[in-house]
Fold DUF2164 domain-containing protein.
Amino acid sequence: MDALKAITAFFQDERDEEIGIIAAGEILDFFLQTIGDDVYKKAVGDVKKLLKERMDDLDIELDLLTEK
């Protein structure tokens, strides 16, 4: 998993500490449990906004077709 590699690389590069995959997995699990719900809600909100914008654009295009 790329996230685990990124965590181990971060500790090596930024803290000059070597941690294993198990420790990296525990750190990842901690953050997913801590902020995962907020990240999910933000993503759903972003998708809703994008879909609304696309639907508004489609509505305008359909209106333009009926004006011809």
